[in-house]
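Sample pair:
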Amino acid sequence: GLSFQLNSTGCPVCRPEYLKALSAYYADYADEICEDCQRRLAKNPLRLLDCKNRPCRSIIENAPQIIYSLCMECSDHFGELKSYLDALERPYTINNRLVRGLDYYTKTVFEVWVEGIGAQSAICGGGRYDGLTEMIGGPPTPAIGFASGMDRVLLTMKHQGIAPSGIPKPTVGVAYLGSDAKAGAVMLVQTLREQQVGTTALWENRSLKAQMKHADRIGVDFTLILGEDEIAAGTVT
């Protein structure tokens, strides 16, 4: 089966303090870690948690966990993400050693693992990189993305007996009004997709008016609106 591995790597505000703690911890084991980790300790301490060499694994197990160093914003963000996954009844595993190893990641990182395809079990990995656009000269742009190895995906599909299928064209758009309705809107989108109804989320931090304009622009046949009144009544508009 598949497992969803999840962690937060913090942000430029809280990560530096964690890196200091991690480096201080590893300084006591500088003569015991592998040559790769000795280089990582000097250049990119976060990658220490990603080492697969057996001598380093026991050291990693007792290393400081970044989850306890998150600032309030990162902690709240991570809690909100988990609440959406819980609402969708999507199982996940908090993996305190998952870091992805790239400096441009902020807050969320994740991987999808699968059993039965050999030692390289991750078929997908990614996370948030809210500061990446600024790093290359662009405007502040929140972003999230992932990469997936097609060879591993095809191997997994073959192993599980899954044939490729088409993706339904979105015919329904879901909008929400009020922060209390957002989790319900996320669940509604997921429920419709599970029923093979082509559904798209319209919000992306838009106002309700902007969500409706977006629905017209992409040409969905139906737009469902979920607000506080609908939540209370157990209906949609």
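The chain has a mean pLDDT of 89.
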